[in-house]
Write a structure and sequence with these properties.
Chain lengths: ~220, ~325
Amino acid sequence: MDSAFGQLAVLGSSLVLMCGLTLLWRRGSSAHIAAFAAQSVALAATAALIAVFTGSRELWLVAVAFLGLKGVLMPILLSRMDRRLGGPRELEPYVNTATSLVIGGLLVVLAYIVTRPVLEVSRLPTRSGMPLAMGLIFVSLFVIISRKKALTQVIGFLALENGIALLAMLGTYGIPFIVEMGVFLDALMGFLVMQIVIYRIQETFESIDVEQLNRLSQ
Amino acid sequence: MPSPAGYAVAIAQAALALLLAPGLVGLIRLFKARLQNRRGAPVWQPYLELRKLFAKEVVVSTNASWLFRAAPFVVFTSTVAVAFLVPVLAVPSPFDAVGDLLVVVYLLLLGTFFLALAGLDPGSAFGGMGSSREMTVAALSEPTVALAIFALALGAGSTNLGQIVARTMADPASAVSPGYLLAFGALFVVTLAENGRLPVDNPATHLELTMIHEAMILEYSGRYLALIEWAAWLKVLLFFSLLGNLFVPWGVATALTPASLGWAFATLIAKLAVLGVVLAVFETRVAKLRLFRVPELLAVSFVLAVLAITVSFLVR
């Protein structure tokens, strides 16, 4: 029973991580948004899985919240933003795609090394998924620093938030619901603030290429 | 000590692979044609093509050396040799002692290498382009084949393909483990690249500036072309049986009884047909990638393979 739970948890976590790596691979904004939506659905499924095996009622609420807000609402908001901004479909990232994929793979290996001490003390059946969640956190941070388009960076931030939520669920079977919701609302507020900032950038520079922020405008 | 019957079955399964290969390609073509609202040629069309090509006269460029004549035989025999090592119908095969997955990878690469040389040999502009592209793709995809199967080999504790199959059958839960799924994804992408299928190369076209496989064999005709085409089709079948039998091993015969061999044959046909449909649907959905974006696709599959190894190494 526990081994099947562990296997499925790792499976869910690797799906979540795969969607994160898709951000490095694809270039179009719509592909990024679709990857984020798929990631959130996978995350919600993992939460539901943990809820089934641990019998936690709060995690069910969390799963539903993930599915509704991150799987449906945020992708809709993101694609609305993408439509309104328009602009160039592809921006050359700081690191090219092939290299960033290899770096992504290395980051996951690094995550395995970093989480090794935790894995040794943990007895949870879900522990094998924790390095993958940590890997997603690293990969999302890499997306944020290596991509130029502000929209992609926002998606990277949201994926980072997904990674943290996944790590919390796998490591502790869900932090208390009230804390979870607090973090969640923080992320939502952050997202809304970033949305406004991006519109401002677009109005000022006629582009959301953040490289232009390096230069002073009169 | 393997019995004579074991050898007979191993030889029979290589012959079966050789005979089924044109049919499989015919099936994929038929599915694709139907998906594109064409009626399509019948499934046995590739057999007729082979018969026609074997009967035709060979035309060889005056600039070509012995290499050009030798390459089709090297390509064909190396691919047939792989057919002896890949678990198609039954495990363990007595030829498991001869070669493991590393031998399979190198034999496949040997064929690719000679095909590339033969593309350069007659000195045509197209052939050289095809060879250079094929080498670019092969250099990126061969390591992924090895890595993806290594991820499975880690679990089985052996690089022997027959033993990997046996071990997966003994432990069915491992077939849904993330390491397996990641390795499957990696191997599927590489199957497309190695066999010149759609996002990498277009198998349906003959005169296009971006072709890879067809550009190398443009100078070939008659029975040489037949051998190369047959080897290429056999390669598709072998990759399909790797995908089908390594990751979903159920049905592969472990005992040499007629009943289990018959069941193995039936499941093999089913697996090949399912993979054929998947490939046809996939090829109809995707557009060909720009050549310079192919390395990105292969990098994806390489990263998948690396992750597969990492996961199966640490979750063991």
